[in-house]
Amino acid sequence: MNYSLTILEMAVVALGLGLLLLDLWTPLEQKRPLGYAAAAALGLVFLFSFSTFVDSGTTATAFNGMYVQDGLALFFKRFFLLATIIVLIISVEFADRIAAGVSEYYALILFALSGMMFAASANDFSLLFVSVELITVTFYVLTSFQRSRLGSLEAGVKYLILGALSSAFMVFGIALVFGTSGTMNFAELAAAGSHFADDRIFLLGLLLVLVGLGFKIAAFPFQIWAPDVYQGAPVPTAAFLAVGSKAAGFVLVLRVLFGAVPDITGHWTKLLVAISAVTILYGNLCAIPQRNLKRLLGYSSISHAGYLLLGVAAMSPAGQSALLYYLGGYLFTVLAAFTVICLVMRQADGEDISALAGLNQRSPFLAATMALAMVSLAGIPPVAGFFGKFLLLKAAVEQGAANHAYYWLVAIAIFGVVISLYYYFGVVRVIYWSKDAADPSPIPISRPIKATLCVCLLGMLYLGLFPNLVLDTADQAVAVLRTGSQTAARDQGPPFAGR
């Protein structure tokens, strides 16, 4: 077994355990900067992921084929590492609002990261379930970490109940898949998937697995937890949920649909198109009356799950590549917005949009960052959000000649974009044109936060203006979804061997 393939995950787990041990000998007043140390260490892990020791350019497996290291896995692992670095820096800024256990908060973020990285390499339903549970259980604690806030505790309980329910659906679905096929390995399922295309028990199992994954990506009708949890959770937790947890759900969706059962997925076009369309409409329409900024971003997250499902529903490499590109732009956009919320809401009693009134006078830099984030989320050029939506819509339109349902999906997506202009630019209007500023005092910005916001701004602009580098990387990453299953099956011998 090639255990060395898991070196990135092991480094993250070791960092989390080391942080907990270091906390024992660190004075209380010096625990807050441990987040910076963790972020710096993750930066080294991120750079190490580009070395030939990790990225050999070939597909390799470990743990009897349960774990796969390929281009898709590395793309998402680097995505998760970059997102976690930014979330840790936000957490340091937020640490004064955590009554106790700030080091444990940092460590839990790292353990959630390890689960996301294992999810990126999942090539078996058993590893899929373990990685999803590692992510979900850590988020149960992270969501309710502010034990003195009723809203945080309420969000934690809601996430716990609905998360446990989704896990029950998923594990029952995995049991049905294994019971009918005799295997949980994606490569073996792909090699014999056509044999189970008419097996109703097998198909029911797959649908139940997708129910569990639908909860992770907040797709309709499994999205009801998102607005309440985003509103009640600490700001860094909400940011990590919006970016890391959602991306982990989508990489697993890609692995299952296009790595494990590609033959069956081709028959589910109408289902995926319908889920994408309804998710887009639900998220955008429900966001219109929202006044709480985090809750608005919760509904926004639902609508963006619908846009990302365009790439899945397109059933093409172009759609999958567009999905990865869109996630890249979404990372910088959402984390920039949550960073501004973390700074501004510190001096406000609530999280109402009105707290942003006069932000252009209090901090022109924060105002410009938040405005650009809203512009990117709305899909206005020249930032990343526009080109990401364009690629997803283009991938869907290309399939329209074969299935006219895609034209309806594209029309609904464009309609959703038009709706979103109202509430996104409502935030911009409050920032620049509201006259009743709640607090005219300047907002101090630390150097790490200023550097983080600059990175997010550059990321939004660079991906929008120069998308080719990320697109080429995404194209190479999704190539394994077309060839990886066959390669892995050939490496491991005939399907169901020894069973």
Textual characterization of the structure:
With 499 residues, the protein is mainly α. It has a two-stranded antiparallel ribbon. Strand 1 and strand 2 form a beta hairpin. It is globular, with a radius of gyration of 22 Å. The two termini are 19 Å apart. The C terminus is likely disordered.
Q: Summarize this, please?
A:
The protein is mainly α. The protein has helices at residues 7-24, 34-48, 71-94, 102-120, 125-143, 150-181, 186-192, 200-217, 226-232, 235-260, 262-265, 269-287, 293-313, 317-344, 359-362, 364-378, 384-398, 405-433, 447-465, 468-478, 480-492, and strands at 60-62, 67-69. Strands 1-2 form a two-stranded antiparallel sheet.
Mean model confidence by pLDDT: 86
Helical amount among residues, as a percent range? over 70%
- Biggest sheet descriptor: 2 strands, antiparallel
Strand order of the largest sheet: 1-2
Overall structural class, as computed from helix and strand content, comes to mainly alpha
Rg result? 22 Å
Question: What is the tally of helical segments?
Answer: 21
Shape: globular
Provide the β-strand percentage band: under 5%
The count of DSSP E runs of length 2 or more, i.e. the number of strands, is: 2
Catalogue the unreliable spans.
483-499
Kindly report how far apart the N and C termini lie.
19 Å
Order of helices and strands: HHEEHHHHHHHHHHHHHHHHHHH
What's the arrangement of secondary structure elements?
Elements: H1 7-24, H2 34-48, E1 60-62, E2 67-69, H3 71-94, H4 102-120, H5 125-143, H6 150-181, H7 186-192, H8 200-217, H9 226-232, H10 235-260, H11 262-265, H12 269-287, H13 293-313, H14 317-344, H15 359-362, H16 364-378, H17 384-398, H18 405-433, H19 447-465, H20 468-478, H21 480-492
Antiparallel strand pairs: 1-2
Helix pairs in contact: 1-2, 1-4, 2-3, 3-4, 3-10, 3-14, 3-20, 4-5, 4-10, 5-6, 5-10, 6-8, 6-9, 7-10, 7-21, 8-10, 9-13, 10-13, 10-14, 10-21, 12-13, 12-18, 13-14, 13-17, 13-18, 14-16, 14-17, 14-19, 14-20, 16-18, 17-19
